[in-house]
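We were asked to recover a plausible sequence for a given structure. The inputs and outputs are reproduced exactly as logged, with field labels preserved.

PROBLEM: sequence recovery
POSITIONS: 207
GIVEN STRUCTURE:
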């Protein structure tokens, strides 16, 4: 999920107000991430007071600690960049029961846990972190597979042609290509020199 999506799913209204985001965005950008990056938010027991944001970037894991309201100062965000070789991780655990899914993952001494759709997001996030630690490219942290692509127009056209008699091996009749067997009428035969058609029979006779 992107940071803007976490804002929409915040457990309290005060956790990610525009005022709080105004101090978070410059910090995550300073760590090398986008302004609205893919990340994981580990809500604390009181998300209206503090929480932690994990942002995978190329050099390492950006760990952003957020204080929603510091007395006399307002929101505060501070971050550190942990190189991938120093990131502390635990095991990714995934469990299914009664049609529900539960996943948990330990990251930088914090246990993140979620169920069902959240479990799928934890799994993708944990696999991305583990890939980065192993030196592999960080996978996309979107919503998984998209809709199947539509069939190509060329394939549809070939399917339609295969259903026609011509594609099945039949030879369509050509207009004007069928002739009646037998000699042509005398009136249509060429007359040799010095001949003329017989008015009674139509046969040629000497002129």
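RECOVERED SEQUENCE:
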């Amino acid at each position: 999920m992107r940071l803007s999506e976490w804002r929409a799913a915040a457990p309290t209204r005060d956790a990610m107000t525009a005022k709080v985001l105004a101090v978070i965005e410059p910090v995550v950008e300073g760590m090398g991430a986008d302004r609205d990056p893919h990340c994981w938010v580990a809500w604390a027991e009181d998300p209206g007071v503090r929480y932690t944001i994990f942002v995978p970037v190329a050099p390492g894991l950006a760990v952003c600690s957020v204080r929603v309201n510091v007395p006399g100062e307002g929101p505060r965000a501070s971050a550190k960049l942990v190189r991938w070789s120093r990131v502390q991780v635990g095991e990714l655990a995934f469990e299914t029961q009664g049609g529900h899914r539960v996943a948990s993952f330990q990251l930088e001494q914090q246990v993140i846990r979620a169920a069902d759709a959240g479990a799928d997001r934890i799994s993708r996030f944990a696999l991305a972190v583990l890939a980065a630690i192993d030196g592999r490219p960080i996978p996309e942290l979107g919503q998984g597979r998209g809709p199947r692509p539509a069939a190509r127009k060329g394939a549809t056209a070939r399917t339609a042609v295969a259903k026609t008699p011509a594609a099945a091996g039949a030879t369509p009749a050509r207009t004007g290509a069928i002739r009646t067997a037998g000699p042509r009428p005398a009136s249509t035969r060429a007359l040799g020199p010095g001949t003329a058609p017989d008015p009674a029979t139509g046969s040629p006779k000497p002129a």
